[in-house]
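Course assignment 3, question 2. Fill in each field.
Student: A.L.
Task: Predict the tertiary structure for the chain below.
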Amino acid sequence: MAEKPDFELTVTKTYRSHSEVEAEKEKRAAAAAACDQKMADAMATIAKLNAESDRAAVDEENDAVDSLNDLREDDTTMLEFTDADFARIENDGDYESAGEYAPKIKSVPGRKAKPKKGETRAGVEELTKALKEKSVGAKKNAQNSDAAAASKKAGLRKAFVAQPGASPGKFEYGGLTEEDADSTRPDLDGAKAPVKRVNDLVLVSSDSSSDDETPLRVPAPVPRPVAKPRAVQVKFEPKIPALVLASDDAKTPKLAKTKKKGVKLEAESSVAGFFTPDTAGDVKGLPALVGPTWDSHLLPAMYRALAVSTEPMTFTAHGESAAACNAAVKAMRTVVDQVHPGNTLPEFVWGDKICSRVVSRVRERRCLLVQAGVDAVDSVFQTKEFVGNPAAIREYAKYAIRVDGPAFWKVPTPRSSPRNPKAPGYIAADGFMESSIIIKAASAIVKTGEFNIPTPDPDGSFNRSDLPSGLFGLVAAGVERGFKRYTATGVREEKLPKFTRKLSSPRVAVFMNNIRRFTLSRWTSLLDALEPTTTATPVSEAADELDSYGDFVYVPSSP
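Answer field:
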């Protein structure tokens, strides 16, 4: 029988009345009208400012033209008099107020006389000729000097005085030309070059008894030595010894990395495949009891303890408090006591050789279990269905990590099915943790017969301490991590956050909470679904045993 998820999705949709819709439309129309009015006011203001600017430009141009005309009209004027006029005004007393008291002069008769009654045209011509001859050389109407100076009849005219050095056809006023009227004002202040002052300060000694005031240069100031800050001693609380993950031997050879096509292994330390072979640096310096059994017994036991742990992220991990570190040390000591019962090893201390190397290898194994899930996801998107189709990859990745998606279920809920479990036509998913991706990743790690189904008690309960809870939790976290690399664009993101206890523990805890509720039938179905394999932790060949265990070839049996 399919297990139903213990959650319920409820979607509530509200509907608005006709009056509410109309009110919303009126509100939007009013807002649009206010926006248009505001835009119109702004355009009117801009047009007004442009008009004022144009008027100011025209007024400025007219002022410049008027200024140039004033310069032309305010030139020197001269009065031109005839010789008779100068002779007439030599004696001002004879002509003083002559115009005021002199009798009115009769008008001169016209040059052509009118014919009288009985006269012929020939007589008129002779009379006109006689009048013309009589008026030759006579003066014009006399005027006094004041009237002559003020009257235009005296010959008033304008004359422009030629300026020296001026070009023909141009007039200069005070050194300016007509082109200067339209030119911009020069920046006389900014044109001044800065004056470089080279004055030296002098010091005159007032204590000198002589009159010789020889200037002396001011001595350069002597720099004061900078006082060094006083050291402040800060007392810290005693810390837990740091964990040395590297080997004490600086010349320990590094492990060769096994690279797969298009797949980049991600782990907190150097890895090789799914299992890390032993090295000479691991066993050097270990106690004689632990060294020979390090690869064959102790490390496999530690890996199994990680796989069956219900808290795989905190197993042998450096905690934030001394209590957490003590718990990790206690877990490691328990495994050592199981491998070597009745041993006389001293108490373990966080940071010693055994603890450091166990934690380093367990941390590698934890990352490799997650990497197995990531690699399984990459192999899915290397098929013909998804190669070169980022859109299809993105949609399938988002569908896979749904609560009822194919990343975790053997038979997932179809995409066409409603998402609400209570909706009509909903198809529930079946086979949690039996998806083909998780089974493929776990089968590459678990060898056939490594974990067995426990015998249930009469009350139906069973012992969970020997079931791979931590292994499936870490693999499921890796599968989720692998699919999330494609949900953004359909192209795999090469850089992801590190898989650490601080960053990744919440996601692993989600899967562990579900695995703790597995029934015996669920475990039976899950372990039966694993593909047959003989994968096991590699052991050293005979040729390498001397390099690894050379320090423990001879162990004295007695003093």
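Instructor remarks: The first strand starts at residue 77 and ends at 79. The radius of gyration is 58 Å.
Grade: pending
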